[in-house]
């Protein structure tokens, strides 16, 4: 019996954890990390947009400060586009390959 067939026979991969943790599957851990990363990226984007807007309003007509604020807002919008594209890519993976990351656990189809 090969090592690969033994791994596929295992079903799930356990995660060693300290006492009191509720995550017992590596798929759940990865799924939750990705979900938290998307939430964190959204909060950061909002923060950078607000900071850039405040910077623009308080620039007082100074061309350098206005340009800095414009660059900050542009970077926030580009970052939001990257996060949205990665979310769309995860949805495509889910649809075409059955790897559902957002359901709370990652179900990777087993080969036949």
How would you portray this structure in words?
The chain is 67% helix and 0% strand. By secondary structure, the chain is mainly α. It has a domain at 24-97. α2 (26-57) runs antiparallel to α3 (63-97). The two termini are 16 Å apart. The mean pLDDT is 78.
Strand portion:
under 5%
User: What is the global morphology?
Assistant: elongated
Largest sheet: none
Low-confidence residue ranges: none
Please identify the oligomeric state: single chain
Cα gyration radius (Å): 21 Å
Average pLDDT taken over every residue: 78
Content-based structural category: mainly alpha
H and E order: HHH
Distance between the termini: 16 Å
Kindly state the number of beta strands: 0
Q: How helix-rich are the residues, as a percent range? A: 55-70%
InterPro entries: T4SS_pilin
Pfam families: T4SS_pilin
Transmembrane segments: 29-52, 73-97
Keywords: Membrane, Transmembrane, Transmembrane helix
In short, what is this structure?
The protein is an all-alpha fold and 112 residues long. The chain has three helices and no strands.
Keywords, please?
transmembrane helix; 112 residues; mainly alpha; membrane; T4SS_pilin
SSE layout and pairing:
Layout: H1 3-10, H2 26-57, H3 63-97
Helix pairs in contact: 2-3
